[in-house]
Amino acid sequence: MSSTASDCRINESRPFRLSSVLTAFFPKSVEKLDILLEGIALSAEMGFDSVEFFYDGPETGQIREALSRYMLSSIFLASYGMKSRGLDPGHPDLEERCRVLDSMKGWLDQSRNCGSSHVMIVSGPDSRDPGERSSRMERSRETIKALCEYGTREPTPVRISLEAFNDSGEPWFLLGPTSRSVEMAESLGPACSNFSLTLDLSHLLQLRENPEESIREAIDHCTHIHLANCIIANPDHPLFGDKHPAFGVEQGEVDEAILSDFLSSIISTESLLNRPYPLTLGLEVIARDPDNPRAVMAEAKRTFDKAWRACLHKEE
Q1: For 45-73, what is each residue's pLDDT tens digit?
Q2: How many CB atoms lie within 10 A of CB 12?
Q3: How far is CA 83 from CA 92, 123, 136, in A?
Q4: Is the pLDDT of residue 4 over 70?
Q5: Is the C or the N end of the chain the one with fewer CB within 10 Å?
Q6: Eight-class DSSP state of 240
Q7: CA separation for the pair 256, 47 (Å, rounded)
Q8: Which regions of 214-256 does DSSP assign to beta strands (E)?
Q9: Weakest-pLDDT range from 36-50, 59-73, 142-156, 262-276
Q10: Which residues pair with 299 in a beta bridge?
Q11: Alpha-carbon distance 45 to 223, whole Å?
Q12: Of 13 and 288, the one with more pLDDT
């Protein structure tokens, strides 16, 4: 089965793809092929339509074969490589920006080899100086334009989405607030038709934004949404900030009811669902017990299933 065929899988009972973020559920999967393949198989077993992963090793054929066998679409998380290596598309030094672009192009090639037609990236750090922020936006824009052009190359075009993070707390990224992220998407123009935005429920809450309003603001550019929790009311909590704890954890912002309401707002926004490619919703909970990631993934899926059933009940 080709990557194009596997890219079409969607559960007809949901008007979106449901994806498992394997870098969170199986943190060791970024460096251990056997764990990544286990995560792919388990995702199919649990009823996911897609997986999100990062892997920089040479065994791309085995990954492609597994995705094809289980008929899973996928998103290659170049964002993981960029964050872990501190890569900045808007770096002030031209030589460094060229090095960053080369790394990003390499991950687009890696995604193609793995059978993934969607790559996620991130911005670099924010600047508190408004003048420097504007310069960073312009430099980042040029880097992303070059990457989008590279992504259009045949025989396997790749879609690119940028995940917005917090600019007022960890990881202090340029993109950033929804308004600024939308500004970037709009400024790229039609030449970057393969570019879109990834929004994350927990990041929107960390930004102190109203998630439903943020979705509406980004509606013309959003193709991918992460469903995740955060703790923001208690700075002394060990899971404060961008830690993606389990849904419903004490002092957390997102429980089953909040998740159900957020899903309702998504499915009531028809233009989000009427895209050339199905909207992807990714479940992202970080498994902190290396010996039991399966249980974390199973519990997150159970919470989603309950929230989805409650959402459907509200729609009746």
Answers
A1: 999 999 999 999 999 999 999 999 999 99
A2: 5
A3: 18, 9, 17
A4: no
A5: C
A6: B
A7: 19
A8: 222-227
A9: 262-276
A10: none
A11: 25
A12: 288
Closest CA to 219 of 260, 186, 258: 186
What confidence tens digit (pLDDT) does each residue in 213-258 have?
999 999 999 999 999 999 999 999 999 999 999 999 999 999 999 9
Distance CA 312, CA 303 (A): 14
Dist CA 27 CA 46 (whole Å): 18
What's the pLDDT score for residue 11? 64
How far apart, in whole angstroms, are the C-alpha atoms of residue 217 and residue 42?
35
Q: Are 145 and 192 in contact (CB under 8 A)?
A: yes
pLDDT tens per residue, range 89-114: 999 999 999 999 999 999 999 999 99
- b/e burial code for range 230-246 (CB count within 10 A of at least 16 → b): bbbeeeebebbbbbbbb
- Name the 3-class secondary structure at 148: helix
Burial of 196 (0-12, 13-18, 19+ CB in 10 A): buried
> Domains in the chain, start-ordered, CATH in brackets?
3-315 (3.20.20.150)
CA angle 282, 283, 287 (to 5 degrees): 135
Q: In the beta sheet, which residues pair with residue 125?
A: 173
Residues in the chain: 316
Q: What percent of the chain has pLDDT over 90?
A: 85
Token readout for 180 is: 């600024």
Residue 12 — very low, low, confident or very high, per pLDDT cuts 50/70/90? low
Q: Which residue has the tokens 């039991």?
A: 292
Mean pLDDT of 152-179: 94
52 CB neighbour count, 10 Å cutoff: 30
- How far does the chain reach from its first CA to its final CA, in angstroms? 38
Q: For residue 150, give every residue at least 6 positions away whose Cβ sits within 8 Å of its Cβ, in sequence order, or none.
A: 105, 108
φ/ψ region of 218 (left if φ > 0, alpha if ψ in -120 to 50, else beta) reads alpha
